[in-house]
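Thought: the user wants the 3D structure for the chain below. I'll pass the sequence to the structure tool as-is, report back what it returns, then summarize two notable features.
Action: structure_tool
Action Input:
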Amino acid sequence: MARMSQDNPITRDQPNSVSSAQTHDLTPAQAHEVSDVVLADSATGAAPSFPVLSPPKSPPPAGPAEAETEKLPSPKKAASRDRAPLALLPGAKVDDFEIVRMLGRGAFGHVYLARQLSLDRLVALKVSANRGSEGRTMARLEHQHIVQVFSETVDPDFNQRLLCMQLVPGIGLEKLISVLHATYAGSRTAASPEWNGAELLAIIDRSASLPAELDPAALHDRETLARMDAVEATAWFGARLAEALDFAHHHGVLHRDIKPANILVNPYGRPMLADFNISSQPVGTPSPDRGGERGGAGDEMFGGTFAYMAPEHLDAFNPSDPTKPEAVTARSDIYSLGLVLQQLLEGRTSFAMLERKEKMVDTLRTMADARRAERPTCRAGLPGARMTLERSITRCLQPNPEDRYASAAELAEQLDGCRRLRQAERQLPRPPAMLRPVLRRPFLWLIALVLLPQVAGSIVNIAYNSTQIVGKLATAQKELFVNLVAGYNAIVYPIGIAFLVLAVLPVWLCWRTLARAEQLPAGEVQAARRKALRLPRWVAILTAVGWFPGGFLFPLVIAVVEPELQPSIAAHFTASFCLSGLIALAYSLCGVEFIVLRVLYPGMWRNARAFGDTARRELAPVATHLRWIQRLAVAIPLLTAISTLVLGGDLANTAFRWLVVGLIVLGFLGSIVASGVTRGLSQVVVALTSTKA
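Observation:
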């Protein structure tokens, strides 16, 4: 395959789309304006067109009679293999086709809306130079997200190829992105800062100039797309295109020119991959079109679009670089698709196109070096579905092909997982206004929601002991009690805090790394997410171990060291510590479960593949946790009432009487609050585990 040639001019329709036969004669302006396709009426991207030769200027309009019967004129001598096609006027007849109007023109040829006379149907007809194997390539790629080829013939007079393709009413993705990010940017508010699927469909509807056939299955896609936000829609578009790419790759076909201009979006919002003119089979793979002969570069064109090329693609395109075309693999297509998705989501790509101020080979080398040096990262912020999507896109853009997704199928699964994660995120119950600061500083609130119930339990314990225990102890027993309290707290609190820090620290480190948009392996995020789910269990264990043994240890030590401890006082010791511990346990467990399920768990995803199945498996024990929270909260007023009735207590003591009444009333109100929180968390679990495909 010759990489360089000075035989052919270039055209100026889409930026930076070239074939390898065009690099010597590019001027700086041409480096920005190399053609792929321009829609004749800016209304529809009904069929693909491809980069190489510049179409000649259209001939003067023919008269009415001529226009009805115009055909390709017979040349005096055979046309060259690379001869560019003539522009055809409406009414012209070519082979089995009658031209209706031009849909687009590009460096490889012209695309027309045409009527196929033998079948009386509208098709997209591409008239191009008779080179490459686009027709044979696309004919075997029958996929709902790839433009279908019906037939291919060659005009014998001009040696021009006539490619009859599926007519796709709708709009090109390039125009869709441009309008989407330009038209709506000024009208968005803080409450709705990004585009959504409804806006996207509105642009398609305004741009469509051709009727679409009724497709009930696609209609369902449209209805679903209308309810999506930018994250869901980008992930859905990307997954469908990745599936199409994977289908092509499994048939031994590399696209090699993935970009918005080569993607069409039909009126139902379905993206369709077009332009396989410079596609190829990987070197060394059997070619179905060659009877099993090993495929290679051969006479096929090698090109692409600078702005969307992977670094290894730029190297292979550069005649001064030893990299061969075989370096462009399926992962190079994944890189290009990542740039397309980044542009759809944000209206821009990570890499600006350099102006050519030096030789083309130096420009290509500079671009490749920049893409290897400037590793794309997602934006810092609160971890969530959008950040997971951005991380998925940046993985596509890794300079080393081995660091990208292994296949387009793996990328499709990841993007579908991102969409389901965002779908679940949007279904999460909105917290009350007073709890919204929790979403911004989850770990600060996690510590607070662990400590505050402990403080509340301590207050109850001190009040209970003061009114029912301390006053009935002998002087020596009182001194021993004070020493026991100091020693017990000096041991229990440091140990409890140390274990809590050890449990929370890896989760916090992971969360901080994600929030700073720093790189973190998917396995570490998964491990930290599972540790986060275990935090409520750790808090429950530490609280129970810290409180409940005291109810038995204190009276036991006093009875051994200072005998004659009354049994009623020992019973009050047990009631005091159990009641205080129950308060600390129920409400700290409730608070931590809220932080974990509502904030941490939805944000700690790196690998979102099989998100629904993973969430269902990991969240299966949560229902049991929530039931225990409700039981513990309800037990507080019940235990207060029962202990008062059974143990008697000094009800004549006003402080104790107020303590009992307060515990019963506040315990009842607390159980209502805990019940509301657990119901909300149940809804969170349902949202996270019931996402639809």
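Final Answer: Structure generated. Residues 436-689 form one domain. Residues 475-515 form the longest helix (41 residues).
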